Amino acid sequence: METQNKEAMVTLRGVNKWYGDFHVLRDIDLTVAKGERIVICGPSGSGKSTLIRCINRLEEHQQGDIIVKDTPLTNDVKHIETIRREVGMVFQHFNLFPHLTVLENCTLAQMWVRKTPKKEAEAVAMALLTRVKIQEQAKKYPGQLSGGQQQRVAIARSLCMNPEIMLFDEPTSALDPEMIKEVLDVMIELAEEGMTMMCVTHEMGFARTVADRVIFMDEGQIIEENDPETFFHHPESERTKLFLSQIL
Ligand code: ADP
Ligand code: MG
C-alpha cells in the first residue's frame, strides 16, 4: 500500500508556457502521487487555471514534460486521448450541455468515447447521480437546476468516465454561498474514497480538511508548497503571508 501510494499520477518537470509574449507558467515542477489531494491557491491571474488546463491539454505547454501515469503529454493524439481518459475535469461554470438532460449529459461521453451501450451507460450514470444525491433530477435540463445541483451533475458526469485523477478549477466560486457546502461535501467524499485530486480553490476549510499539500502560485510560479498546517500557520514567503491575510 505504501509503495502504491507513492506511484506518481501526474508529473510536471520544468513546465513553461507562454500566451504570445506573456510567460504564464514558469519552471513548474510538481509530482502528484496516487491518492494525493492537492489544493492550488494564489491570486487571480497567477496561472492556476492554465496549470491544470495544461494537464489534459485544454492548453498546450511549450517547454518541459507533463506525464500522466505513464503517458507523456505530446502532440500525438493517441497520448492526448489516453490522458483525457484518465483525467476528469470540473469547471467553475459547470459546462454542462444545456440542450441535454442531466442523464444525457452523463451518458454522452460514455457512449461516444467508451462505446458503452446506452442501457449500461445509463446504469452507470444513475449510480453516480445517486452518489451525488441528484438522481431525482435525471430527466431535467441543466437550466432547471440550481448552481449547486448543476455542479454536482458535472462531478457525476466526470466520474462516469471512471477517471484516475480529478481536476477541479474553482468549482464553488460561481455558487451562491448556501450551495457551496453541498458541492464541497461531494468533493470531500471523493477525497475520502482515495481519488487523486488537484483542486484550484480558495475554500480554505476544504484545504484544511482534505489537502495533503497546499500549493501557492504567484506570477506563474510555485512559490510555496506545504502541508495545510504549516501552510496556514507558518507560511514561509512574504507573498503567501500577504495572500493569506487577504483571504482568511
Ligand atoms: P488564474 O486561474 O490563476 O486566475 P489564469 O491561468 O486563468 O490564472 O491566467 C493567468 C494569466 O494568463 C492571466 O494574466 C490571464 O489574463 C492570462 N491568460 C489566461 N488565458 C489566456 C489566453 N487564452 N490568452 C492570453 N492570456 C491568457
Ligand atoms: Mg482561474
Automatic annotation (TrEMBL):
<dbReference type="Pfam" id="PF00005">
    <property type="entry name" value="ABC_tran"/>
</dbReference>
<keyword id="KW-0813">Transport</keyword>
<dbReference type="InterPro" id="IPR003593">
    <property type="entry name" value="AAA+_ATPase"/>
</dbReference>
<comment type="similarity">
    <text>Belongs to the ABC transporter superfamily.</text>
</comment>
<feature type="domain" description="ABC transporter">
    <location>
        <begin position="10"/>
        <end position="244"/>
    </location>
</feature>
<dbReference type="InterPro" id="IPR030679">
    <property type="entry name" value="ABC_ATPase_HisP-typ"/>
</dbReference>
<dbReference type="InterPro" id="IPR050086">
    <property type="entry name" value="MetN_ABC_transporter-like"/>
</dbReference>
<keyword id="KW-0547">Nucleotide-binding</keyword>
<dbReference type="InterPro" id="IPR027417">
    <property type="entry name" value="P-loop_NTPase"/>
</dbReference>
<dbReference type="GO" id="GO:0005524">
    <property type="term" value="F:ATP binding"/>
</dbReference>
<dbReference type="InterPro" id="IPR017871">
    <property type="entry name" value="ABC_transporter-like_CS"/>
</dbReference>
<dbReference type="InterPro" id="IPR003439">
    <property type="entry name" value="ABC_transporter-like_ATP-bd"/>
</dbReference>
<keyword id="KW-0067">ATP-binding</keyword>
<protein>
    <submittedName>
        <fullName>Amino acid ABC transporter ATP-binding protein</fullName>
    </submittedName>
</protein>
